[in-house]
Specification:
alpha/beta, TIM Barrel, eight-stranded parallel beta barrel, 13 helices
């Protein structure tokens, strides 16, 4: 979201209106973090309309049918991409997911301004993503604290040791390791294994990007990763529910 787009949204729906929506909402927050630390490797199943690399994914599907399939397939939580420029998502996708599912929902966007946190909370999010690489250290702390004041859990995303240190400085309790280098878009799942070695016990670890087969799932589980965030591999599968069931290993329980 550009600054101009953000200012337009603020004028259209000021924070005061979002605060009223939050106060009047009947939605009881779902504990996102708790959902990720249940026994076994938890799956955060993502609704993703398109990507810069793959283009449109699963044309003609609705948010409701996808997230309900994820829930039936054993997902522990949902991720809903609300970034329109890069992924074709909107805040309305968050509303539709909230109405269709009782699972905890992560609002996935490049959150760079506190306004976006209020917007996500007002539309039913239980957690938000903050990408360390997209904000200053000062703004990282500001967004993290503001999110918690709104009873939102925070997935703090890192890709390298420097960003991991910044996550430690704000006492992040859920850290997502993005296997995709946002500068080159190259993906290497080994990034998770390298960085998680430096993460103390007690912090929830989420592996993101490039997870597409059961061998990876087994390795990540054996290494002690708490959850995986999977979007494209699920959205592009012939049967979304069965793919989610396989990654969640529901039939093994």
């Amino acid at each position: 979201m550009t600054r101009d787009e953000l200012e337009t949204r603020k004028r259209a729906v000021p924070v005061s209106e979002l605060e009223k929506l939050i106060a009047s909402s009947s939605h009881e927050g779902k504990p996102f973090n708790e959902a990720l630390v249940r026994p076994g490797l938890s799956v955060i199943a993502e609704h993703k309309r398109r990507s810069p690399s793959a283009g449109e994914i699963r044309a003609g599907s609705t948010v409701s049918e996808i997230v309900q399939a994820y829930e039936r397939g054993g997902a522990a939580a949902l991720s809903v991409l609300t970034d329109e420029k890069n992924f074709g998502g909107t805040i309305a996708d968050l509303d539709e997911a909230r109405a269709a599912s009782g699972l905890p929902i992560l609002a996935k966007n490049f959150h760079i301004d506190p306004y976006q946190l209020y917007e996500s909370a007002a539309h039913g999010a239980d957690a938000i993503l903050i990408v360390v690489a997209s904000v200053s250290e000062r703004r990282l702390r500001e967004l993290y604290d503001e999110a918690h004041s709104l009873d939102l859990d925070v997935l703090v995303e890192v890709h390298n040791e420097e960003e991991l240190e910044q996550a430690f400085e704000i006492d992040a309790d859920v850290i997502g390791i993005n296997n995709r280098d946002l500068a080159t878009f190259e993906i290497d799942v080994e990034t998770t294994f390298e960085l998680m070695a430096d993460i103390p016990t007690g912090i929830t670890i989420v592996a993101e990007s490039g997870i597409a087969n059961m061998d990876q799932i087994m390795r990540l589980d054996d290494a002690g990763v708490d959850a995986v965030l999977i979007g494209q591999a699920l959205m592009s599968s012939p049967d979304v529910e069965e793919a989610c069931r396989a990654f969640s290993r529901v039939d093994e329980d």
